[in-house]
Specification:
With about 290 residues, the chain is an alpha/beta fold. It has a single domain, classed as Survival protein SurE-like phosphatase/nucleotidase (Stationary-phase Survival Protein Sure Homolog, Chain: A, 3-Layer(aba) Sandwich), CATH 3.40.1210. Helix content is about 30%, strand content about 25%. It contains eight helices and 13 strands. The chain has a nine-stranded mixed β-sheet, with helices on both faces. β7 and β8 (about 185) form a beta hairpin. α3 packs parallel to α4 (about 130-140). The longest helix is centred in the middle third of the chain and has 22 residues, at about 160-180. It starts with a helix and ends in a 6-residue tail after the last helix.
């Protein structure tokens, strides 16, 4: 089923030139870097310039690495403000921002699309489980709204390169939105499928192309801890090592480092395949006692 969904998406993307150009979409825009971050404001301006109606709802401050976390404190007043026309902040997580947007600002009808980003730093492979950028998009998909997560960079230390690529990443996102939008402002992605876009943090002339990929199985969680010689524990980034398989060379992690913009279909459905479900049922049997 997952393979068929990815094939459907690839066909839709590659056939984009044959699709009716997008009209003005209602877009809910969020991120995890905060409402003042350059990435989200560049994205806002680009999507508005493309003719879309954009409502930005972003965290009051940086919420990177929060995944799909929420602020759990029922019935407590929440600090929310519209700082500029169509630009809001929420004192909460990226998922909180999506929830506020869908349940307060878009009560009459849901937006056509949720866009999360552009994030300062890339989000390939297993990192999507920790990413607030991707978490916000996944939450929207689970709410029945198509969503795109956008991240920029490959070298977290090269912040200048990331910032230079933000405009190109926003323009690319607008192009993707145009490709997947059909007559009636319907998003032509398969049901329950979103997109994870990673744009390398390099100049346009150094981009090799665009690749529709899968999440990498090569890179584990690079954020970990180390005990120094003095006994102090520090947090570190420990990049993956070792030879990649032929398949892994074609997945998002390696394609980003090869200079490709990667577009990875996302399915937030975490259920195991039916075959594995049956295997677990057989393994456990029917004699377990509660």
């Amino acid at each position: 089923m997952a393979l068929n969904k990815q094939l459907d998406f690839a066909i839709a993307l590659l056939a984009g030139f044959l699709v009716t150009p997008a009209g003005a979409l209602e877009i809910l825009l969020t991120n995890d870097d905060g409402y003042e971050a350059e990435g989200i404001n560049i994205m806002f301006d680009e999507l508005v310039a493309a003719g879309h109606n954009v409502t930005m709802v972003a965290p009051w401050q940086n919420n990177s690495g929060g995944g799909m976390s929420i602020s759990v404190d029922p019935f407590k007043p929440v600090d929310v403000a519209e700082v500029e026309p169509d630009k809001w902040y929420v004192a909460g997580t990226p998922v909180d921002c999506v929830q506020f947007g869908l349940d307060v600002l878009f009560t009459a009808s849901p937006p056509d699309l949720v866009v999360s980003g552009s994030n300062h730093g890339f989000n390939p492979g297993v990192s999507i489980g920790m990413s607030g950028t991707v978490g916000a998009a996944q939450n929207a998909i689970l709410r029945g709204v198509p969503a795109i997560a956008v991240s920029v960079g490959e070298n977290q230390r090269d912040q200048e390169g990331i910032l230079r690529a933000m405009d190109d990443a926003a323009r690319f996102t607008a192009q993707v939105i145009d490709r997947i939008t059909v007559a009636g402002n319907d998003i032509a992605l398969p049901d329950g499928i979103g997109l994870n876009i990673n744009y390398p943090g390099r100049d346009a002339e150094d981009i090799e192309g665009v690749a529709v990929t899968r999440l990498s199985s090569y890179a584990r969680n690079p954020f970990t801890f180390r005990k120094n010689d003095d006994g102090i524990i520090v947090s570190v980034i420990d990049p993956p090592r070792g030879e990649a398989t032929e398949q892994q060379e074609r997945e998002d992690w390696h394609m980003i480092f090869k200079g490709y913009v990667t577009v990875t279909p996302l399915d937030p459905n975490l259920n195991a395949a039916a075959l594995n479900q049956a295997r677990v049922e057989q393994l456990l049997g029917d004699k377990l006692e509660p």
